[in-house]
Amino acid sequence: MFAALPKSYKTELYRKAIHLSSLWIPFFIFHTDRNWSIFLFSVLLTINLILEYAACNKTAFIGSLFRKIFIKTLRNREIGCNRFVPSGSVYILAAALITSVCYTPRAAAAAMSIVLISDSCAALFGKFFGTHRFYNGKSAEGSLAFLISAILIVSFLFPEASSLIIYGTAAVATGVEFFEKEIGIDDNLAIPVTSGFILNLISL
After folding, report:
1. What domain range is 156 assigned to?
2. What's the domain count of the chain?
3. 63 inside domain
4. Which residue from 98, 68, 77, 93 is spatially nearest to 196, judged by alpha carbons?
């Protein structure tokens, strides 16, 4: 069945599988001392930036190896290298670092879970089941999948939160994902920073 899927579908599945493999990040944030989280994500972000910059400039062995391994996960704007464009992983690690520094572990873990799980749900449901498209190419089905999964995540990690907080946080995160182009900030960074800010207010 998988082999019969169009190439674009396979690529999206592969990309989101990589996305979901990063679920160790919220787990680590939630169960580890904040200082360790800050240290780890600082190191990983630095290494990631160096590798991607080397890949962009096709710097010897490191750059070539990086492109061969991660070529399927990179979007066209990240591959065409007239100028350096960070990939989604850079923004994910930057978000992990920022949320670890600024928010409580529970708020940071919830925010990172939303961007990893809900964003993947939106992309996959939109790709496979999206029939009602908006002006920006996103689908009602994908946005609904994002909203529902975000509600479940916040409800699970903040069972004491009011319905207003749960649904409001999920709605804000969904809006940030939907209006990514208008906001002008990669949603891998914007989603956890905004949703984490709201959840941090109730977890202080």
Report:
1. 7-203
2. 1
3. yes
4. 98
